[in-house]
Inverse folding.
């Protein structure tokens, strides 16, 4: 949404111009899936698709929200906010306000209109973008002085306590810390991070939207998180240095197979292997262009997510199978929480058009489904936009 369109919509609705315009991007993740809540490593980036916000203090004690894309409004007194029914779009904003208040902020009434172009249900973290945009905007408008990492943590808390998904930090981190042309590796234990450029002359990241979102995504996500916690607890009985799956080795998992049980052992193995893949992939990126090796790691990540972690679905598996045959594809895998959404594909730049044509035809032929694709550009994280 352009700054002019947003300003116009805001002014029409609230009767005064916004004081601040903010852009908050969605995210992709090159590798490191379901590792963030195991204190592991992730390698996401922010994308050009984003949610934009107009904000202004309104001189009352009311928060007035306008969701431009859903043509829907919500209003509440600041002192009365509480989680709404699950799935309500205002939970993300309200959760952020609650987090700021909890940290001592006096939040006065404000108006907020927002809308964007992150396809919903595509696994590109439109919810994290909403949380991060509001957190960043209120922090600036009210001069609260939180640093960017604190804002990511406040946004994550909103997801836990208002959206009721026990997510890790990756999505909020990527939306706030993205850098144009780069992916960024985050160590979810120490919160240290490092940027890696992606050479777009050689390769592009193409997202293929399966168009499905299975209802069990949120509940299965929380279940995986519990299984990992349980795995870490069992492993810690033998080695007290294991504080999370980040600390475990494959040998330790193998040795505790009986106690873990078959399912939890597989979950643990996936997490340990995926962390190793993030390390290996970033070594390849640092060493220059080794796209075949990078691609193999991406394919291996999908296999683990499908077979050991069991968060893929038939449509995503078909997309990855097709990518194996597609012109220019180095690697492909499901991305994000799973059970639908997009695959991420590393594709030779010169072959992107052929790749997309092949995938589109193949998805239609195999499943009778229409494929939406996005050639992404890695973008900057949350920031102000100027009219
Ligand atoms: C979702 C979560 F929000 C992230 O924290 C992360 O766990 C991801 O699924 C899986 O890697 O996007």
């Amino acid at each position: 949404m352009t700054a002019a369109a947003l300003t116009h919509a805001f002014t029409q609705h609230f009767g005064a111009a916004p004081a601040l315009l903010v852009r908050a991007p969605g995210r992709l993740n090159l590798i490191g899936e379901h590792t963030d809540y195991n204190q592991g490593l992730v390698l996401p980036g922010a994308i050009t698709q984003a949610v934009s916000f107009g904000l202004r203090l309104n001189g009352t004690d009311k928060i007035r929200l306008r969701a431009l894309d859903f043509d829907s409004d919500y209003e509440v007194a600041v002192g009365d906010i509480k989680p709404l029914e699950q799935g309500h779009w205002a939970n993300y904003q309200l959760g952020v306000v609650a987090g700021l208040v909890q940290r001592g902020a006096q939040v006065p009434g404000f108006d907020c209109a927002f809308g964007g172009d992150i396809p919903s249900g595509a696994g590109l973290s439109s919810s994290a973008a909403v949380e991060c945009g509001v957190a960043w905007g209120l922090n600036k408008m009210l001069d609260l002085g939180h640093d960017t990492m604190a804002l990511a943590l406040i946004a994550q808390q909103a997801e836990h306590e208002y959206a009721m998904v026990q997510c890790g930090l990756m999505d909020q981190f990527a939306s706030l810390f993205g850098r144009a042309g780069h992916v960024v590796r985050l160590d979810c234990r120490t919160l240290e991070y490092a940027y890696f450029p992606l050479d777009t002359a050689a390769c592009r990241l193409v997202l293929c939207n399966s168009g499905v979102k299975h209802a069990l995504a949120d509940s299965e996500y929380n279940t995986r998180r519990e299984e990992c916690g349980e795995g870490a607890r069992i492993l810690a009985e033998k080695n007290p240095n294991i504080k999370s799956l980040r600390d475990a080795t494959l040998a330790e998992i193998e040795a505790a197979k009986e106690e873990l049980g078959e399912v939890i052992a597989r979950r643990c193995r996936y997490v340990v292997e995926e962390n190793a893949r993030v390390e290996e992939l970033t070594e390849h990126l640092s060493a220059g262009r080794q796209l075949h090796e990078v691609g193999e790691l991406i394919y291996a990540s999908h296999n683990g997510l499908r077979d050991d972690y069991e968060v893929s679905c038939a449509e995503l598996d078909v997309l990855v199978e097709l990518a194996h045959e597609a012109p220019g594809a180095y690697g492909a895998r499901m991305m994000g929480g799973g059970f639908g959404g997009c695959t991420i594909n590393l594709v030779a730049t010169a072959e992107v058009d052929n790749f997309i044509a092949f995938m589109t035809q193949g998805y239609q032929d195999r499943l009778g489904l229409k494929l939406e694709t996005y050639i992404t550009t890695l973008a900057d994280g949350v920031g102000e936009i100027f009219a």
Observations:
- Residues 3-199+379-384 form a domain with the Ribosomal Protein S5; domain 2 fold (CATH 3.30.230.10).
- The CA atoms of residues 327 and 355 lie 5 Å apart.
- The longest helix spans residues 262-287.
- DSSP finds twelve helices and 14 strands in the chain.
